[in-house]
């Protein structure tokens, strides 16, 4: 009789804390033993030469999501989750987008219907809060948090999404009461629209002027303002997709003051730069995302932010729009403006290979930091740890085997998303995931997908400990509670 459903043998087991050698025993979808020379498994995998890491958690992806401007993402939960698993990710946290006035319960139910029967891997939801009015929040905010939706994204820019400072305060106060995590898209909306109008009047409409319309100051100001609001009410928050060193410095200053302020950055700010906007023809549109990639020198600052632990998570912000498509990024006609190019880049499948190759193999971050940034810190931040994000007895057996020496040249043709390009075409990497297990089931082997669409399960998030207020408020919370 076998003792385990599966034993992964002779492997290097890396967590955010340790790197050890041994075997992993898996039964009923969970890790049940870690040790040396474990007893027999019904299935055995000799993983010598490979590294076993906790499956990646990509806590910032946009799949089959409504948008304020009517642009259409090209990945749904099936293609998006398939691409995630192929790139070594085993849990995704996409967004449920609240239309103004829509109840929060209706919002999440709508996205459950979109994910069910489609997602190959496990998933939770963040809610994009566009209407924090008393009517909406009083109705079901507290019940929603109790039911496992414990993170909310607030936008400071984009018509139809952006909140005023006053609305932000309403949302912050509610998050504080419920110990929910807030994710902030920090860019100054009025500066962007003012600059955009002037650029268009001057006929400066090419894709590269997208970056001109959103300079680093616009991000820095909004980051500073968001942190000030958080400090005022003593509410933790995470600044998402931080692109520039100036915004990063605001986060560092807040952290140095002891505030519970966290940062997320993304591969596009490590691997793309404003030079990519100068690609021939309309190709610059492929890299249009917000905030935009900055200059080449900025990339090293963002790497330093990762190695110095200023950033807590590296997410993909997978927001994929096809390029050569009527609804895509390549706009017909010279009169069209960068303003109309849908914002976002694909990246759910390339996030971890890029970080492993350029981070771990180039010695910029340790293997433990890689695991923290890609797997462990996100579920801690959003209330899914220790079920997700670690290799430990009792945790879900979401495990990825990496070949640290595998040489791969990235090409869109090898990727599993539904996008017609990758901004990282031709990039040479060392290290790649070769097997992905989701709750003990092998869903990807050597780029071939085995798991069935719809096998992924919804994960309820706990109230995250990092969202707990510090207890040192500037003003008496009884005023706003
Ligand atoms: O350009 C981006 N980042 N698009 C996705 C939406 C968002 O703000 O994260
Ligand atoms: Zn955003
Ligand atoms: Zn995003």
What's the quick description here?
By secondary structure, the protein is an alpha/beta fold. The protein contains twelve helices and 18 strands. The strands form two sheets. Strands 1, 2, 3, 4, 5, 15, 16, 17 and 18 form a nine-stranded mixed beta sheet that branches.
- Helicity range: 25-40%
Number of helices: 12
Give the number of DSSP strands: 18
Order of helices and strands: EEEEEEHEHEEHEHEHHHEHEHHEHHEEEE
Strand content: 15-25%
By secondary-structure content and strand pairing, the structural class works out as: alpha/beta
Shape: globular
For the residues shown, what is the average pLDDT? 97
What does this structure look like?
With 481 residues, this protein is α/β, with parallel strands linked by helices. The protein has 12 helices and 18 strands. The protein has helices spanning 77-86, 104-115, 134-146, 165-178, 189-201, 209-212, 216-233, 245-256, 268-271, 296-307, 351-360, 367-382; strands at residues 4-14, 19-27, 30-35, 41-46, 51-54, 56-61, 89-97, 122-123, 126-128, 151-155, 181-185, 237-239, 261-265, 313-314, 399-409, 428-438, 441-445, 448-449. Strands 1, 2, 3, 4, 5, 15, 16, 17 and 18 form a 9-stranded mixed beta sheet that branches. Strands 6, 7, 8, 9, 10, 11, 12, 13 and 14 form a 9-stranded parallel beta sheet that branches. Helix 3 (134-146) links the parallel strand 9 (126-128) and strand 10. Helix 3 runs parallel beside helix 4, helix 4 crosses helix 7 (216-233) and helix 7 (216-233) packs parallel to helix 8 (245-256). The N and C termini lie far apart (59 Å). The mean pLDDT is 97. One zinc ion is lined by residues 185, 240-241.
